[in-house]
Every structure is written in C-alpha cells, then in structure tokens.
User: Fold this.
Amino acid sequence: MDRTTDTTRDAGRRRARTVTAVVGLSAVAIAGATSVGVFVAGSLDASASTTDGTSSSQSGTGTDSGSTGSGTADSGSTGSGTADSGTTDSGDSGAVTTPVQPSTGQGSQAQSSGS
Amino acid sequence: MPTTTTTPTSTATPTATATRDWTLWTTDARLVVTEPRLLDLAVAIVDEVTDAVERACSRFRDDSELSRLGPTPAEGVEVSAMLARLVDAAVTAARDTDGDVDPTLGADLVALGYEHGVPTHTPAGGAVPAPAPVTVVEGVTLAAGPRRVPIWPRVHVDGRVLTVPTGVRLDLGATAKAVAADLAAGRIADELGVGVLLSLGGDIATAGPAPAGRSSWGVVVQDLPTDPAATIELASGYALATSSTQKRRWTSGGRPVHHILDPRWGVPAAPVWRSVTVAAPTCLRANTLSTAAVVRGRRAVAWLEGLGAPARLVDAEGRVVVTGGWPVDTDRAVDAERAVDADRAVVTERAVDPEGSTRS
Assistant:
C-alpha cells in the first residue's frame, strides 16, 4: 500500500503555498528554485512545486533531548509493531481515505486534549 | 456532578444522541451514545470497566492490585486478567516505540512529586529530591544525568503470570486509560448495539455506528483554550488521543516539570511539542503514538509519517504540523505546516491564510 498517495494529493491541493526546503545534513538551503520536491517517507512528490525563494528552517522549536547523550536506543524511528491501518487504499481507483477528515460543519461531540 | 444532555442530530433525522459528562481520574470523561434511552446502561458499562482498571493498576490507591504488589519481588506472580491485560498493553506500547513509552517510570514520577493523583509542588530544597537538572527549556526542566538502562524488556506477562524486576514500580497510567476507553466503547457497542464515543481525559474511542445522518464523529482537537483548535471528523471505529506537555505541570524541587518523561533520562521530555494528537484504529495505539511523539521531539514527524499515522502536532510556538493525511484545512487560524524531517531532508510548507498572504 502506498501510504504517500494521500500526502501527494494533499500537497497538490495546497498549491498556493510557500514550499521551502533544506536538504542534507549540511542544511543547504534551496533558494530561488522553481520546483521543489517534497520528500515524504521515501517518495518524491513534484506536485508541490511553488517557491518564493526563501530558505527555511525546521519548523520544530525547542530542544530535543534525544539529541543529547549517546547510544542507539533512540534509533527506533522506523517504528515497529503493527502498521497503522488508519489509512486505507481502495486499490485501482487510487482513492485514499483516512480516519480523520475535515469538519463537515455538523458540529462536534467531544474534544480531544491532553490530560 | 455528572451532567446529561440529549441533542437531536437534525430535524430530518429525529434520532438523538445523549451525552454524559463527569469527572474521572482527575480529568474529564464524556460518553455519547446514539440511543438516548440506553445512556444509563452505557454509563454503567463505563463505570464497570473503569472501576476494574482502577482496582487493577492505580498507583494512587493503596488497595489496588498493582500497589499491593509493592516494591517487593514480583517475579512469577499470578495476577488478575485485567492487570495482565493492562501490563501486556503497556509492554506492547514500549515494544512498538522502542521504549519511548515506558511503563517502568513509576519511581521516577514519584521522585518528581507525582504520587497522589495530583502532582505535588515541592519547593527548592524540599524533601522530594529531583534529578539534577542542567537546563530549563520552554519552562520545563531537562536533565542530562546518567542514561537509564531500559527495564521494560524485563517485564513479562505470560498468561496471567506477571514478571517484574525487583524494585521496579510500574506506572501504567497513559496506556491504561486508553485501554479502558477501548474496552468500554467496544462493550457498549457490542452489548447495547449503539454507536458510542467515549472520551477519557481527551483520549477518545468510538465504536458502532456514527450518529444518525452522519458517517463520523465531530471532534474538536485543542489542548489549552489558547492553543490552535481544529474540528475534524473521526470515522466511527477509530480512536484519537492527545498527549500534552502543557497539562499536569508542577514544580519539583522548585523547578518546573511535566508528566511525560523521557525514559532515557527519567525526566520530562523536552517540550518540542505542546501537544500531539494521533488517530488510530484503537485508543491504545493512538495514545502510544502520541506519547512517543512527545518523547521523540522533532524526530516524531518523520516517524509518524513513516507509519502513515494521521497526526497533528502543535509545536512550542503554536504552529501546527500534520502527518499521515491529517487535514490541514481546519487549521487556518494558524500557520499550518507540514514538516518532514527525514535523516537527510527537511521540507516545510507554509500555508496561506484566508486573505491570501503568506504568513511566516
């Protein structure tokens, strides 16, 4: 199952966006490019192809304590266990559904927040 | 005091939903069922399940089964089916996250002052020792003491026989709440034949059909009232969990801390994310991923994306990052961003606000 399909569509729908990229550990900014690929989980998405020529930095802020110390116990970024079945692929049609969709405006029954 | 509301879903579909709100485990519980006349029976099921979970694993009750095991060696102890199930779920969460969700942090939480259900503020130089901190980031104490050796791989459940290394104090809090939501929602749907949404402290499980006239449940995703909010539709049968570094904050030894610990150090995880919300087929899975994402910090984005997990992460600046097909359109109030932090690439999108100008 190609889990990147939905991501590709999302990116395609959101054309009016600034897409900037930093590629490589040396943090080389791509500036002024006319097309920027979106690297998502090993796939290349060329549909998000707008640019304003600016460079970017990673959106996260703060300090990741995982970057300190040594050892390899935190290298589990590949994940394990069951794959999330929250994304389903209907096959030839290419239609992808996820368990989370935009609001339909019919109101809400609950709130999810930390506790 | 519990409150009950009954709400028609629409004039075209006279079937109503009924809602009960109450306080549970020092947080809010909400139950919504698609058949109002069965609300009381549904509440009774929730009470039965949550009572059983609390009696099995609460570390805030001296008479819980887990508390009675105490710090004494518990190797090869036969436990109740419920406790075995809860420990098994916790160990599964640890295994699925390479230990980022760790059930063996009970002693660390106690050392930080989180012992009696509500964290206890302790002044600098107080009686409760805190790990030696070296820095405070975003108002939360971090530390760089000795790296802990993972203990959770030595916690085993074989049938109903529980093995825990000597002196280890289990804390099943996060996963137990999620398991309770899954169990209760599943039972309500199965036994009463109704659609159900159950929220235990914001960890939401759904089962059975959605409310009449709808194919999903509407859920507002928002941590603190000042945080960016998104209203989404959650397909029935799926679950949602939010982990927060903004809730359950207190001072330990005069220093600010929160309750999601980085197992590598036994201290609060760096608050890279204010909150992380994940959708998954079960609340246990959703809670596992959201908790691990908080612990993983920036690395969480690529990890969740790789899993295909629909998630919404709010960073320390209030910016929203989504993965796995989580819709961004509902987050127009803030910069909606997608960031993929693979080992060798980082891509950031900045959304355009409704007026059409790029926000930065």
Q: What stands out?
A: The longest strand of chain B covers residues 16-24. Residues 9-14, 126-134, 332-360 of chain B have pLDDT under 50 and may be disordered. The helical segments of chain B are 39-57, 65-69, 81-96, 106-112, 173-192, 283-296, 299-307.
